Amino acid sequence: MPEARGGTKSSHWRRCLVVITAVLLLVVIAVLVIVAVRQNRPTPPNLKFGIVLDAGSSHTGLFIYQWLAEKMNDTGVVRQRDSCSVKGPGISSYWADVEQAGLSLRDCLNEAKRSIPVEQHRETPVFLGATAGMRLLRSQNSSQAEKLLQAVEAFIHSYPFDFQGAQIVTGADEGAFGWITINYLMGNFLQDMAGPHETVGALDLGGASTQITFVPDGEIESLDNSMHFRLYGKNYEMYTHSYLCYGKDQALKMFLQKLGVSANGTVFNPCFNEGYEKSINVSNFFTSPCTPMPPWTTHQTLRVIGTGNSHQCRDHVRQIFNQSSCAWNQCSFNGVYQPHVWGKYGAISAFYFVMKFFNMDKEKVSLDEVKVAVDKFCSTPWDQAKNEYKIKEKYLSENCFSGHYVLILLVDGYNFTSSTWNNIQFMKKIGGSDAGWTLGYMLNRTNMIPAELPRPKPMSKASYLSVMIIFSLLSFCWSSVCLYSGGRFADRDRRIWRRDLI
Ligand SMILES: Nc1ncnc2c1ncn2[C@@H]1O[C@H](COP(=O)(O)OP(=O)(O)O)[C@@H](O)[C@H]1O
Ligand SMILES: [Ca+2]
């Protein structure tokens, strides 16, 4: 009988132990859940901002970027928050009235002030990068270009931001930063991507210059065209070239200059739709170093009349590309060295606008389909085209030329073929951020792309605590189970021993 009482007592204690362990377990789980919920409560994010003004030849755009301060050196964390299109032409057009260049930026800078929290204004860096329009102005009149930049700087300094100055970006940098932007936004710098050639090339068509940038599959013969970057622990040897004057606005001027003019000052233009006519003032039109005054300047005003003839248009556009000599193993045009194009490309800015107009910006559209679409548009009478497309008259009237120009630049110039055409993706944005050189430029100026991969961060306090609690809990449970089963075995052994004794 006493033994039976002893057995009841020990099983009572065992039950107590199980209940206590279960209660303890519940308490610990509850504490863990509370800690986790508190830790993960959304805290105000530590957002940082940066502004880049893209002072292009035809217009200025303002881009606001944002990122989390603690993640600034990680891959793919900077995103576009906002953008603003400055009204009016590019800053280089204000060369005769430089104060206006700064003032033209007022609305967009005010918008930036509204978009960024006031307490962040003082630490928000602002960069202004001017491209081919200012390069051309500098080559014509460097002191005027300097004055213009100073006037723009003085105006931006009146804003509460951390202004880092206005610079004329070199053609090589414009190409390289466009390439960085595209690959950064596509996440191509991440280490776990397969293969050594995971990056995509960048093709940028502006109004006054155009850039081609890519990592070739062999040696780069010309040092002038080679750029080296070490990003996130990997080396990139890039080929880049910027063709000044081969942006689509300057190219149109070079093309017009090559057309013959009749005795009464009429120019028949096969790259304008039939029925389209416009007058141009010769001294206002041929002002850039790309188009010195043509020999036929006896006329002050020219009457340009569209004839909409694709065949003739192509022939004339080809004349602005000099294919006659190449001192390297391979060239694009004008004797410029270029390795053969390979891999994928992102084509941005006017490449995109033009292809979008022809509805040819989709994937898997063949080169022949693009040619057919351009020819079809060029043979459309101007009145019909105006009725069909409700876009700015300037763009519409130039699109026959632009379509042919893009095709000739990419195919005859850069040597893309029917089979490599589909490697070009015409793009404006990547995941909500504009694909242009500005983001790459800011990442570089703020040292946000490290040469080496950022080291993995140590565990946060919360994670450390959670791991410690979980491990303690597991050890506790494990020892309880061991003790419990140990007790049961000891009881059983005692019983067997006693039985043996009896
Ligand atoms: N909606 C549009 N349709 C066609 N072309 C456009 C459109 N918007 C902008 N563009 C063209 O894109 C080009 C942008 O060039 P821009 O960046 O100003 O010059 P650059 O880069 O040479 O300094 C210009 O030729 C402009 O006319
Ligand atoms: Ca541009």
Automatic annotation (TrEMBL):
Active site: E174 (proton acceptor)
Top EC class of this enzyme: hydrolase
Biological process, per Gene Ontology: nucleoside diphosphate catabolic process
Cofactor(s) essential for the protein: Mg(2+); Ca(2+)
Transmembrane feature ranges: 16-37, 464-486
InterPro entries in UniProt: GDA1_CD39_NTPase
Swiss-Prot/TrEMBL catalytic activity: a ribonucleoside 5'-diphosphate + H2O = a ribonucleoside 5'-phosphate + phosphate + H(+); ITP + 2 H2O = IMP + 2 phosphate + 2 H(+); ITP + H2O = IDP + phosphate + H(+); CDP + H2O = CMP + phosphate + H(+)
Record carries keyword Hydrolase: yes
Topology within the bilayer: Multi-pass membrane protein
Keyword vocabulary terms for this entry: ATP-binding, Calcium, Disulfide bond, Glycoprotein, Hydrolase, Magnesium, Membrane, Nucleotide-binding, Transmembrane, Transmembrane helix
Source species, domain of life: Eukaryota
Gene Ontology CC terms, in alphabetical order: caveola
PANTHER family named among the record's database cross-references: ADENOSINE/GUANOSINE DIPHOSPHATASE, ECTONUCLEOSIDE TRIPHOSPHATE DIPHOSPHOHYDROLASE 1
Function: Catalyzes the hydrolysis of both di- and triphosphate nucleotides (NDPs and NTPs) and hydrolyze NTPs to nucleotide monophosphates (NMPs) in two distinct successive phosphate-releasing steps, with NDPs as intermediates and participates in the regulation of extracellular levels of nucleotides. By hydrolyzing proinflammatory ATP and platelet-activating ADP to AMP, it blocks platelet aggregation and supports blood flow.
Name under which the protein is recorded: Ectonucleoside triphosphate diphosphohydrolase 1
Organism, as annotated: Torpedo marmorata
Lineage of source species: Eukaryota, Metazoa, Chordata, Craniata, Vertebrata
